[in-house]
Structure formats: structure tokens, C-alpha cells
């Protein structure tokens, strides 16, 4: 009896240790993501484009420096040239890279009216939040962004003219990747849910219980363990050529990506939905048949609504898998980060965007963890929204779902 008591305590201790270890690892991952990614989170990251527009300009004829003294104070990281009427500061862009940003431009500054040296004939104007890449001079080395705002302002103060200035708009935003992810969620669920739920209904409600049905279930379960990169190869070899033939796509695209994700998700949707159908009491079916309903009416008006919570679980699992999938989408959709998203073209989801950032040299860990936080927020928001809508729907049709 004493040995059994000690044995139970040892097993209980092992259980507690395993639980606390799992919890510690999970919290460590969450804390790492939050601590590294929270500093880059801002609304501009979500709403801005990834690609920035670059401009090269020089001074217009008869433009020259002057005296642009102002009664205004700036921060310690901002430096103002009263000779040129421009204030520059050391900052970080949306990708976490050090840049020089324009903090202020005097209304009469020569930088307010620049001559475009590009293909366009439009005049250019330097304004706040543009990023200065370099300022080139005729008789001196160029002032580069990597040398800092103080060095650039110091050089400008010693010059009466410059050969050209290169600057750009702020890039590095993930708006296109967010739109791509939402497109993939919508397209994939539109394809996978009807097929998966229909297959589950057939297997549980209509299919005969024989060896063939059992083998089919075993094959479906086996598909859940296939590595996603193999599905990606299938998408590249099968769905990409099909979409090229049937649509205006010319290569990997969002439709081929959604078809690939649908194949990945079908086993999960089928098994989860079928398990929810199995827990519906047989008394519900018998009562419906006794009241004169046929098999189809019983299935779609009694059994299916009663299994709604299980179908909701399958939907939530599918959304999480869609947002988190990357290996298959690298082949089926591509890794080109696009701001203008089309279902017939390449693009990147948020998870593939992380892949692209981590394959940079050096890897952009800060932005990758920031995108991870955004993914977690999107998944949580969708889960809460779907659960809220499902509860209202269940209440409306008179079904309680605790």
C-alpha cells in the first residue's frame, strides 16, 4: 500500500513537471515574440505599402541656400540646418532599419522645389517623413544615410550647392500581405468547407459500414500527416498549370494557393465534422423520422444544425492552418511581396512574409516577430467573431450550445 502511494506521488510529480515545462516553453515563446516585436507595431506598418518610391532630384535654376532661422526647437536626435531650411533626424523605418527622416522643411527652403532627374518632368518637393538616402556633391564625397543625420547636416552647412539628392517614401509595410492572407482565407474556406462537410455527412450518415469505408477513413487520417511541402509541390505541378489554362494567370497565383490549402485542410475538416456528427444522439434522428421527415430532411434540418459547434471547430482549425501555412504557399503562390494584390498573380501571406524576412541577410527578427504578433491578433479576432456569430445563430434557430 505504501509503495503504491509513493508510486502515485511520483507519477503525479512527473505529470506536474511535464505540465509546467510545457507551460514554461509556451510562455517563453510568447514573451520572446512580444518583447522583440512590440516595438515595431504601429498603424503605418499595417496600412503602408511594402515597396517605397525613390526619387533623384537636384536644385532648380537660381535656387540657393539662405538664412532660414526659425523659432522652433527639435528633439535631441533631430538636427536643423538654418542655411538650407531642413531638419533631419535619425530614425527607424517600418522594417526596423536605421534611416534618416525629414523632420521639417522650411516653406522657403530650396528643398521645397526640386527638379526631377528621373523620367518624369514633374517637379518634386521634399516634405516631412521622406527618407534621405544620399546627397551627392561635385567636389566632396556624398553624404550617406548610414553616416547619420548629424553628419549629413554638418556637410550641408559647408556647401552652397549639391549635385543631386536621392530620397524615398516610407516602405516596408505589410498591407499587401494582410490582404493576401484574407483572400486566401476566403477562397480556401469557400472551396474546402462545402466539400469537407459534404464528405463527412456522406461517411457518417449515408455510407455503408464496410471495409471500403473503413479504408477511406484510414486514408483520410493518413493525409493529415503528409508534410505540407509535398502539398506545395503538388500545387505547383497540378494546380498552377490548371489555373494558367483556365484563367489569365501566368504563374503561381492565389487561386492555386487556395486549391492547395483546400487539399491540406480537407482531412482536418472531414474528421472534425464527422466526429461532431457522431455525438449527435440517435434519438434525434429517430424522432425526426418518426415525425415523417425523410433521410435528407433529417440530415440537413436536425443532424447538421446539432453538429454546428463541431463544424465551427473545424472552421477555426482551418483558419489557423491557412494563416500559419508557409511551406506549401512558397511553391503554390510564390514569395513575391506585392502591394497590388490580385487572385491571378503571385503574392505573399503573412507567414510567407515572415519567411522572406528571415531569409534576408541578416535575418530581420524584429519585423518577423512583429508580424507574428499581428498573426496572433488576427487569429484571436476571427475566433472571437466566429464564436459570437455562431452563438447568435444557434440562439436564433433555438439550439443551445454551452
TrEMBL record:
Signal peptide: none annotated. The keyword Manganese does not apply. It is a multi-pass membrane protein. Residues 178-386 form the ABC transmembrane type-1 domain. Its main location: membrane. Pfam families: BPD_transp_1 (PF00528). It is found in: Cell membrane. The keyword Transmembrane helix applies. The chain crosses the membrane at residues 14-35, 182-203, 223-242, 254-270, 367-386. InterPro entries: MetI-like (IPR000515), MetI-like_sf (IPR035906), Phosphate_PstA (IPR005672). Keywords: Cell membrane, Membrane, Transmembrane, Transmembrane helix, Transport. This is Phosphate transport system permease protein PstA. It comes from Paracholeplasma vituli.
